[in-house]
């Protein structure tokens, strides 16, 4: 049985210089990706 899900932390990565290509134009946008990490595997600060 698992000890608990409170040991997992949520990480949100944000890219502000990404370029999205549309059908006829290119526009700069903000892309966000979210994931979860195990605190025991990554105890230090993520950069």
TrEMBL record:
Gene3D superfamilies linked: Ribosomal protein L33 (2.20.28.120)
Key words of the record: Chloroplast, Plastid, Ribonucleoprotein, Ribosomal protein
Gene Ontology molecular function terms on file: structural constituent of ribosome
GO cellular component: plastid; ribonucleoprotein complex; ribosome
Signal peptide: none
Protein's recorded name: 50S ribosomal protein L33, chloroplastic
GO biological process terms held by the UniProt record: translation
Domain of life: Eukaryota
Biased composition regions of type Polar residues, renumbered to the chain: 32-47
Pfam families: Ribosomal_L33 (PF00471)
Record-stated family: Belongs to the bacterial ribosomal protein bL33 family.
Annotated segments matching region Disordered: 21-47
Keyword Phosphoprotein: no
Lineage: Eukaryota, Viridiplantae, Streptophyta, Embryophyta, Tracheophyta
InterPro entries the UniProt entry points to: Ribosomal_bL33, Ribosomal_bL33_sf, Ribosomal_zn-bd
